[in-house]
Structure formats: C-alpha cells, structure tokens
Amino acid sequence: MTEHYVSDAPYDPEADRQVLDRADLDAATWVLVWRRFRRHKLGFACGIFLALVYLALPFVGFLAPYGPNEIHEDSINAPPQGVFFTHAGSWVGPSTYAVEMVPDRDTFTMREVVDDTKPMPLRFLAACGKPHEFLGLFETRARLICPAEGGTFHLLGTDRLGRDIFSRILWGAQLSMTVGLIGVTVSFVIGLVLGGMAGYFGGWIDATVQRAIEVFRSLPELPIWMALSAAIPVNWGPISVFIMISVILGLLDWPGLARAVRSKFLALREEDYVKAAELMGAKPSRIIRAHMMPNFMSHLIASATLAIPAMILGETALSFLGLGLRPPAVSWGMMLNDALNLTAVEIYPWILTPMVPVILVVLAFSFLGDALRDALDPYS
To answer: At what angle do helices 238-251 and 165-201 cross, to 10 degrees?
Structure first.
C-alpha cells in the first residue's frame, strides 16, 4: 500500500489563501502573455538584444568611429587592432599602439609592425572623422569613441580599400536590419488580403488564390530573386534599389502566409460569432477585421518574427552575389562579397567578420519567434 505523508506543522490559513488567490485567475490576457514570455529566458534576452539593436540604428553615425566609406590608404587589409588598458605595468586606460603596414618581400603581402613603446589613449565623446548627419537633422563630427590624435582604431581590421570593418558593420546594420521589416510588411499585406479573401469567400476566389500560391511556390526562390534583382536599372540610386530589393523579397514570400490565413479563416467562418455578425448585417470587411483577424493575431506575430531573418538572409545572399544593394550603400551582404576571393580569405580571414552579426541576428529572431509563439497562447 502507498504511504501517505501528513505534516505535523500547525494549520496556517494564510498559506492556503496565498495558494488559492492566484493572480493568474483574474489577470488580463496581455498580462499572462507578458509573464509567460518573461519566463522564456533565452527568448526574453534575444528580445532585449534586438530591441537595443533597432534603437541604436538611428545613432550609428555617433557610435561608429569612422564613416562607411572612409578610406585609410595607410591601413589597407590591416588586421584587427587590439585595445590595451595597461602599459609597462601602469594603468593607462583604453589605448592602442601605433601600427604601420609595410610590404613583406617573402610573402608579397602587407605586414603589420606595431610600435608598443608608446600607448595612444582613445578619446571618448570627441570630434573626429568626416561629418555625418545626426538623425537627419544636422551634420556633426561628434562620435562616441575616436582614435588618438595621429593614431588609428580598427577594432576588426580593414578591408582591401582600407575601410574600417567595425564601422561598416554598424552602418550596414541600418540596411540589413531594415530590409527584413519592409519585406515582411509587403509579404504580410499580400498574404493577409489574398488568404483572407480565399478563406472567407471561397468559390472561384479561393480557387484562383490557390492556383496562384501553387505557381509561386513552384518557382525556385533564389534564381527568381537573382533574375528580378538583375533587372533593376543600373542608374537607380541606393535608396531606390534598397526599396526594390525589399519589395522583391516580400513579393516572393507571401504564399506561405496566405495558405495559413486561408486554412484558419475556413475554420473561423463557421464559428457562431461570425454567423451572428453576418445575420446582423455586418460587412465582410468588418467581420474579417474585427472578428476573425484578432483570433489569428498570435500566429501572425510569431510568423512575422520568424520571417524577418529569412528576409535578412535573402538580402545578404543577393548582395553577396553582387545582385543586391550597390555602392555606396553598405550592407552585411555587400561586405561579405569580398569573401568571394578565397585567396583573400586565406590571407585576411577578418573579412569574414560580417558573418557574425548575421548569425547573431538570425538566431535572435528565431529564439524570439519561438518564445512569442508559446507566450501568445497563454491558456495552453
């Protein structure tokens, strides 16, 4: 027989009241969603990371030590430059050493010669480099961190033209992180409209949308991206090309969402509250917007979060192949275009550094999407 344990402690009515008076019983849905999302430690941390990244995008000019296309002729293909806090056993604060690139006759490459006899302290909240527009309001040379007078600060090295890789990664985040938002917006507008019409009205509308979905899903995605990107006129400016690339990514990504919306609406249109709204004379647009769409919102938010990294990878792939954004625009994919030369990668491996933010951002969106998908269904 199973033994039962009975506590010898005296009865405490306050302890029972704390167990019975759970806040979850009377809390609003958004409170339950927030509590469940906050308990997902990895997803919550990724959400904070992505929020900080997007909040920093307007201030990239202030955060980056150099401009995106600022060339340093004396530091071509320079390796990452270390930051030191002590010199000869004494505290000197964040500093670098003077670096000179000299030709190596044995390897026919540029070799780094470090002068470690004199530290060069970095400057903070100082003016340096070329002017940049602060929030599009005025030009300024103020930056968060600047190299010492007459010194350099290349935290992640430089590329084949002597441009600072760390600064270009920060500047490239503006386009690489934004292209996903625009592409998902285009994709969701098309997917919601076509999927909602197919699921609610049915009939020939449903059949037409279904055939269109099948046609788009049968197309090989990357070759179509490449063909449409190559068709963009060469005389277009960087902003026009950026917007067109975002639209192309969105136009080819809507079939999956449209099919999910259609299947959900096919089930929701048979619900009693939808039938009641129809009998009361509500218009189809109001029924879809006010009664059916809110019941599908949790899936939409999770889907949008998981679709953004696919857009970022799409832009990266196109720019890596030379069919995406064009100079003087800067994106992570354009920076990785230098890695097409395997010999250069072998000699200068730091040109692959832009892969790191791409991996971090894609993983962060994936973990955030998983956390939101679980949190937005708090009653499961």
So the answer is: 40
Residues 220 and 291 in one domain: yes
| Furthest C-alpha separation in the chain | 88
Query: Both 276 and 347 in a single domain?
Result: yes
User: Tokens representing 103?
Assistant: 């030709």
Determine which helix (DSSP H) or strand (DSSP E) holds 96, and give its type and residue range. Answer: strand 90-104
Cβ atoms of 181 and 217 closer than 8 Å? no
**What digits encode the pLDDT tens for the residues 155-197?**
898 888 889 999 999 999 998 888 888 888 888 888 888 888 8
The strand pairing partners of 133, in sequence order, are 139
Q: What is the mean pLDDT of the chain?
A: 82
- Looking at per-residue pLDDT, the higher value among 222 and 367 belongs to 367
Backbone angles phi, psi at 115, to 5 degrees: -100, 95
For the chain, the helix, strand and coil percentages under 3-state DSSP, each to the nearest 5:
60, 15, 25
| Residues 333, 229: Cα–Cα separation, whole Å | 14
Is position 327 within any domain?
A: yes
HSE (CB half, 13 Å, CA atoms) of 345?
A: 12
Nearest 5°: the CA angle 251, 252, 253 is 95
From residue 255, alpha-carbon distances to 38, 170, 183 in Å are: 32, 33, 13
Residue numbers of the domain that contains 137: 82-153
Residue 351 has φ and ψ, to the nearest 5°, of -70, -10
Beginning with the edge strand found earlier in the chain, give each strand of the sheet holding 90-104 in spatial order: 84-87, 90-104, 109-121
pTM > 0.90: no
